[in-house]
Predict the 3D structure of the following.
Amino acid sequence: MVKLRTVKEWQAAMPRCCLNCDHYLTHRGEWEEGASCKVFGANPPREFVEQANECASWAQLIPF
Ligand code: SF4
């Protein structure tokens, strides 16, 4: 039997990293040399961008 997830369950299971943060400004949806965080006004290094659950300022992308 397939168990369906609610949107809240799906959101809770999502890793919170720069790549799916509303504050990360990138053209391709992946790490880029010139991509920046508009909260900190900085260009986070690739290791940090891909690391989940490290930032307290993460904001969920609005899917529209
Ligand atoms: S707010 Fe945090 S998680 Fe979001 S882009 Fe900036 S550093 Fe990354």
About this structure: Residues 7-13 form the longest helix (7 residues). The pocket of iron/sulfur cluster is lined by residues 18, 21, 23-24, 37, 39-40, 44, 55, 57-58 (CB under 6 Å). The CA atoms of residues 22 and 63 lie 10 Å apart. The mean pLDDT is 88.
